[in-house]
Amino acid sequence: MTQKLIQKHILYGKREFELRDDTVKIKINSLIDENKDFEVELAMINPEPIITKSRVEFHSRVKCRPLLSLYLNKPNKKEFNAFVDAIKEKAKNEFNAFAGIKTS
Asked: What is the 3-state secondary structure (H, E, C) of 59-100?
């Protein structure tokens, strides 16, 4: 099952995040920069995000840099929180599967 979040920013354009089985597919259509299309493995993501004034960032477990950056509460708080919670849960599960950790 896939879950999608679409965020629009008046200056930076449109960003689409699609949560798949073991990856997050990101498509950025920027108004001021080049368009980007890439995927991030969930097992690489630290499931505890860092919250700034206007963003929620999921950092790498290895290099401590943001792999995912979401505009806070866009398009709405309920949809945003559901997507962030799904990323947290899937990132934990994917890392546990990768590391061979069994949870009950």
From this structure: EECCCCCEEEEEECCCCCHHHHHHHHHHHHHHHHHHHHHHHC
